Amino acid sequence: MHQRTRCALAALVLVPVLAGTAACSSGGGGGEASGDGDGTVTITIMGKPAATNTAAVALFERQVAAFEEANPHITIEASDVPWDAKTFATRLAGGSAPTLLRVPLTEPPALIERGQVADISDVASELDSFDDLNPRVMQFLESDGAVYGIPEKSYAFGLVYNRDLFEQAGLDPDSPPETWDEVREYAKKISDTTGKTGFGEISTNNSGGWHLTGYDYSFGGRMIEQASDGTWTAAFNDGSARDVLEMWKAMRWEDDSLGDNVLGKQEDLVAEFTAGNVGMWVTAPPDVYPNYIAAGGDPDVFGAGPMPQGGADATLAGATVLMVSATATQAEKEAAVKWIDWRALRPNYDLEVAAETAEASAADGLPVGVPVAPIFSEEAYEAYRDAIAEYVNVPVENFAPYVGSLDAFEYVPEPAVASQEIYAALDPVVQAVLTDPNADIDALLDDAETRVNQILAQNAS
Q1: Is 175 exposed, middle or buried (0-12, 13-18, 19+ CB in 10 A)?
Q2: What is the DSSP letter of 366?
């Protein structure tokens, strides 16, 4: 494993990247792609912004054009289709997956074990920023000297809240709740005072299991545990998970502060929050903010606070990573890593490119300067923020409670095995508690434990 001691001037930003004149000499590794015949190569990539985010799409397309101009032997074919574990399992097995995969950090262990992603160490190790990538993320992407991916962004759970609704409810918008008891109190005040949903929740498309996991961590629980023989078993059928489910049950059926729209996914809650109908909810605030702005949200209304705690001082943390399909040729692999460097890395460690990116993004009305959990060093992050300071158009002070929590909490990763399958198995538990006032929490957890242990056994075989 490489030692990461060099300080690349870098940090992750949650804005699309401009590949302008300053970005025309790639710092990436493998030289010219040596495609078939005439030396040209075409790669298919994930990561194009959704069509509804027109400003981000326009900037992305300019970036592709500039990349192709700087690398005339490479053609980019981009897709805005997001990762879906079931869909892409079939595509990977059938050899029809894109060259460049954009996946959550839960996926690499299984993709690596199944041999579905390529070792890119020969190319990635030549990147200017490689040695400074965060080892907390890279530990999931490296094995015995092989490198299977590069982080695009990292995240940690926190509380997103509507500052206007806080004020209407007589709450201080600069002091969001820090414990789940306070969340319950604040949510009821918001609902009783404004008639809006005090605390929003999601429970479909694996989001219920995802949230149960993150909340469980804040109470000191874990979802799975590994025995000395290396096997994994469910660990959530305990007091921590019961505390979470009892809290949900009380907020839904006693306080009436969760509202009635509890069977949605994150995109649904973003829309409701942007419309001013939800007081608080849990997510990764830096990830949500660009979508909130794209949907017409008021920057001054958006607040970000720490992940509420049940006594553990911990928060769920993860990342989005970029990986190359195992079916890629050497030329395609080299081209894909060039693209990764161009879009995801250089705008965060090359300060000239960072400033150009920020200027172009601000001109297009895109958020610039959203505080994040950086994937590079803190020193690099400060250098980056200095470089973009004149273009920042985000009310950074509204993120202060969230930023202050990032160094205070333990970062707990998502389940190391079959995470998305576990989340899917837990969705019905969350849905039952949120839709049935007589839901039997013990029976639900017993049933889910059996199903998750079956999933873990199947993944071990």
Answers
A1: exposed
A2: -
Which residue carries 């101009």 as its tokens? 69
Pairing type for strands 410-413 and 314-324 reads: parallel
297, 274 in Cβ contact below 8 A?
yes
Residue pLDDT, tens place only, 249-264: 999 999 999 999 999 9
> What H or E segment, with its residue span, contains residue 112?
helix 108-113
Cα(36)–Cα(278) distance, integer angstroms:
54
CA 223 vs. chain centroid, Å, equals 19
Neighbours of 207 (CB within 10 A): 21
Structure tokens belonging to residue 11:
């940090």
Residue whose C-alpha is closest to residue 210's, from 445, 433, 414: 414
The tokens for 362 are 């601000």
Q: Is 244 left (phi over 0), alpha (psi -120 to 50) or beta?
A: alpha
Pair 108, 119: CB distance under 8 Å: no
- Chain-centroid distance, C-alpha 127: 23
Domains of the chain (ranges, CATH numbers) = 21-154+318-399 (3.40.190.10), 158-283+418-460 (3.40.190.10)
Q: 97 near 117, Cβ under 8 Å? A: no
Sort 296 into a burial class: Cβ within 10 Å, 0-12 / 13-18 / 19+. Answer: exposed
- Chain segment 407-438, per-residue pLDDT in tens: 899 999 899 888 889 999 999 999 999 999 99
Kindly report the pTM of this predicted structure: 0.78
At residue 1, does pLDDT exceed 50? no
pLDDT digits (tens, 9 = 90+) for 112-137: 988 999 999 999 999 988 988 888 78
Cross-strand pairs, 278? 197
- Give the helix/strand (H/E) hosting 457: helix 441-460
Tell me the one-letter amino acid at 219.
F
d(CA 370, CA 13) in angstroms, rounded, equals 7
Residue among 88, 86, 103 at smallest CA distance from 319: 103
As to burial, measured by CB atoms within 10 angstroms (0-12 exposed, 13-18 middle, 19+ buried), residue 13 is buried
Cα-based distances in Å from 141 to 47, 93, 336: 19, 20, 16
DSSP state of 179: B
Q: Give the tens place of pLDDT for each residue, 156-202.
A: 999 999 999 999 999 999 999 999 999 999 999 999 999 999 999 99
